[in-house]
Amino acid sequence: MSGSTGPSTRAAFRRLTLGDTALIAAMADPGVREPSVHHLDPWTEALVRIGVLVALDAPPSSFRSAVDAAQMAGAQLDDLLAVLTAVAGPVGSARVISTAPRIALAAGYDVEAALEQIEPPGDDGDPPAGPGAGADGVTHPG
């Protein structure tokens, strides 16, 4: 057992195990101050919430709210990517792939629009230019 675990923490776990709705309500309301309810700092709590939303495959509106809270607490786009990195193993690649654009968009980065601006190699309308190829795409003897 950790030396920093006090009686109120152990009591809180017992109360939760018994389904204490008053404690659960106090935990859900950040404005309620009860000695047995411990909160993370706002930055960490916001990032944890985003990780939970990834696991739940939450809708974009949920990500907007959570990302707004994270940014208000000082989180940057790098931090949001770190959340995806942290949960990638447990939730799987499909979940990370499906939620990444929702998180980025909520943070103000439209990944899909950015991808539309990138031209795939060889898809610029010009013929492929290989070694010795001129501007017309035809190989000319050198």
Number of domains: 2
Structural class: mainly alpha
First CA to last CA: what distance? 78 Å
> Based on DSSP secondary structure assignment, what is the total number of beta strands?
0
Order of helices and strands: HHHHHHH
**Low-confidence stretches at least 5 residues in length (pLDDT < 50)?**
none
Q: Label the overall shape.
A: elongated
Largest sheet: none
What's the helix count?
Answer: 7
Strand content: under 5%
Question: Cα-atom Rg, whole angstroms?
Answer: 25 Å
* Average pLDDT figure: 85
- How helix-rich are the residues, as a percent range? 55-70%
Topology diagram in text:
Blueprint: H1 7-17, H2 21-28, H3 42-56, H4 60-72, H5 77-91, H6 93-106, H7 111-117
Helix pairs in contact: 3-4, 3-5, 4-6, 5-6
Structure described in brief:
The chain is mainly alpha-helical and 142 residues long. 58% of the residues lie in helices and 0% in strands. It has 7 helices and no strands.
Description:
Helix 3 (42-56) crosses helix 5 (77-91) and helix 5 (77-91) packs antiparallel against helix 6. The protein starts with 6 loop residues before the first helix and ends in a 25-residue tail after the last helix. The protein contains 7 helices and no strands. It is elongated and about 65 Å long. The mean pLDDT is 85. It has 2 domains: 9-39, no CATH class; 40-119. With 142 residues, it is mainly alpha-helical. The chain is 58% helix and 0% strand.
